[in-house]
Amino acid sequence: MNKDLLKFIASLLLFGANGIVAAQISLPSHDIVVLRTLLGMLLLAALLLARRDRNRVRPSARSIALVSLSGMFLGISWLLLFEAYTLVGVGVSSVVYYCGPILVMALSPILFSERLTRVRVLGFGVVLAGVALVNGNVFGGDLDPRGVALSALAAVCMAAMIVFNKKAEGLDGLNNAFVQIAAACATAIVGTAALHGVSLNVQPGDWAPILLLGLVNTGLGCYLYFGTLGKLRTQTVAVCGYIEPIAAVVLSVLFLGEAMTATQVLGAVLVVAGAAGAECSGQLRRAAGLLVRPTHPTWLGILRRAK
Fold first, then answer.
1. What is the pLDDT of residues 196-211, one digit of tens each?
2. Which residue pairs, CB below 8 angstroms and at least 24 apart, start in 106-109?
3. % of the chain residues with pLDDT over 90
4. Is the pLDDT score of 1 beyond 50?
5. Could you read off the pLDDT of 28-50 as tens digits, one per residue?
């Protein structure tokens, strides 16, 4: 497993803890989105100023525009998703929201010229089956169609966020993450001001989880995520992205004392197995190709050339 993939998985684990940290904050969901993006942006800006590396190649205006568009879709997706949480709950919203990677994987052969292998499709199917087992009971009872619709729109925005970011070139991890989160922050502020007005009333007990969510989960998480997004295959991003909701379930069991059934445990195992199988298949195939192709002349090759 390469270093970039490990960083990507680490970012997903941080994002998976968002719900646990946000549950400790008494603010409305849209205000939480504004504060987390604002604090994350400030952290990344401080890191950029501390680096002071003026010899780096300046990214093109096109790349900055693409990452800014990606950040805008990220901000919209968070606003839609957090609003959906209040209408249909976290479980239903998350299941619908994570249809976004399905769109990305389906479009990868067209947009990124990536071959969609049978093993990857099978691994993706195993991952989806695991997610269904983990969240199998979330669709019981009457559901507010507005919440489902908002979750679906958030999924489309999530797919657009990934596509636009991967189309950008020339931005290193820190610059990419800063532009991304700055655009998301601006979008969240404008959206919140237009729909709800600006009325941040932070209680003293909220500051610790707010700082943790903004600086670590958002700032550090986005640096790891967007710093590696462009270096990984689109299908890898789509399949491994499902580690995040599984991490959320497992962490809620460990830290919030929520119960986890045997079916959910099986689902979590399937998600990890499907993601690992889909990702490792390509590495094994490349390794097998290196073993089959000799790197030095064989006796058979020498005899053929002699003839």
1. 887 788 899 999 999 9
2. 107/159, 107/163, 108/233, 108/234, 108/235, 108/238
3. 32
4. yes
5. 888 999 999 999 999 999 999 98
**What contacts 39, CB < 8 A, 6 or more positions away?**
210, 211, 213, 214, 215, 218, 219
pLDDT at site 91: 66
Q: Which amino acid is at 60?
A: S
Q: Are 161 and 15 in contact (CB under 8 A)?
A: no
**Are the beta carbons of 124 and 278 closer than 8 angstroms?**
yes
Phi-psi region of 58 (alpha: psi -120 to 50; beta: other; left: phi over 0): beta
Which domain range does residue 23 map to?
Answer: 3-306
Write down the residue that tokens 């997004």 correspond to: 229
Name which residue leads in pLDDT, 87 or 217: 217
- CB-CB contact of 113 with 167 (8 Å): no
* HSE (side-chain half, CA atoms, 13 Å) at 229: 32
Residues 6+ apart with CB under 8 A from 231: 4
d(CA 174, CA 224): 9
**Residue showing tokens 């580690």:** 243
Would you put residue 89 in left (φ > 0), alpha (ψ -120 to 50) or beta? Answer: left
What is the tally of structural domains in the chain?
1
Q: How far apart are CA 243 and CA 249, in angstroms?
A: 10
CB 240 within 8 A of CB 12: yes
Query: How far are the Cα atoms of 16, 21, 33, 46, 275 from residue 248, in angstroms, in the given order?
Result: 4, 11, 18, 29, 16
* The overall pTM is greater than 0.90: no
